[in-house]
Amino acid sequence: MPINLLFSIDNHYLQQLKTTLWSIYLNTNAQQHYRVFVLQQPRLLYDQELAVFCQQLQMDYYPLVIEDSNFWAQAPVSKRYPLTIYFRLLAQRYLPADLQRILYLDADILCINDFTKLYNLNFQDNLYAAAIHSGLTDITTVFNKVRLDTYESDGYYNSGVLLMNLPLIREQVKAQDIFQTIKNNGKFFLLPDQDILNALYGKHILTIPDEIYNYDTRKKIIYETTSGGQFNLPWVIKNTAFLHFCGKDKPWQASYKGNFRELYLHYQHQMHNLMKSALA
């Protein structure tokens, strides 16, 4: 069975998406078939380059071009939070109707181990499966629950790795609810798409371990400390599936001083070499 992957990017994130896909190709079963769905508005300038790259990896590429841009006019955007961040919230609007599940990934993620177990997870009647990042203080947790009125949820979920139960989402996730939430509470949002996900659907999300499936690279010391040293670097290299380079600072930027930069640049370099060979 194919694994369905979902991304939502603009032209600024094409190379990062290719790096993510390359890392998936290298660190999962070589016989696994992937279908790559990419939400985009407008169509990516280098759409053909992405198609060629996916072909090199023996992945099927499906561009999902958002034509109804007026539909999203109510969504607040900024330089840091472009319109593309919202598309995952109503991905079912654009995906093929026969898809049962899909794994959404941010394009600032590296895959360093197999994630098949996550993809085949039993949803237990939940809409999504996602991780709550470790290291949040009790004060931060309470603040988010008060701010978003999510007292019944386990915590504040990160939307960068989001396994979607599409049949149930088609039934229960409605555009009018999302836009009404933006209208009522948008001025209080800190991370817009993530705040909407938590505010509306937080109690319908199955919690997955972030140290395995959504490791926040900014919090390496926190992971090690709170686990009593268990989640050290050797453990991460052996067990973690997804490294997530959260926040404003990114490893492809010259100014980045955070963790795992060398690892990211290694995968990025390999990706560029593969493209050179494909174009030669």
SSE blueprint:
Elements: E1 3-8, H1 14-27, E2 34-40, H2 47-56, E3 60-65, E4 101-105, E5 109-111, H3 116-119, E6 128-132, H4 138-148, E7 157-165, H5 166-172, H6 175-185, H7 192-201, E8 205-208, H8 210-213, E9 215-216, H9 220-226, H10 233-239, E10 242-244, H11 261-279
Parallel strand pairs: 1-2, 1-4, 2-3, 6-8, 9-10
Antiparallel strand pairs: 4-7, 5-10, 6-7
Helix pairs in contact: 1-11
Short description:
This protein has 280 residues and is α/β, with parallel strands linked by helices. The chain has eleven helices and ten strands. The protein has one domain (3-279): Spore Coat Polysaccharide Biosynthesis Protein SpsA, Chain A, CATH 3.90.550.10.
Descriptive terms for the model:
7-stranded mixed β-sheet; 18% strand; 37% helix; 280 residues; 3-stranded mixed β-sheet; alpha/beta; Spore Coat Polysaccharide Biosynthesis Protein SpsA, Chain A
Structure commentary:
With 280 residues, the chain is α/β, with parallel strands linked by helices. The chain has one domain: Alpha-Beta Complex (Spore Coat Polysaccharide Biosynthesis Protein SpsA, Chain A), CATH 3.90.550.10. It is built from 11 helices and 10 strands. It is globular and about 45 Å long. The mean pLDDT is 90.
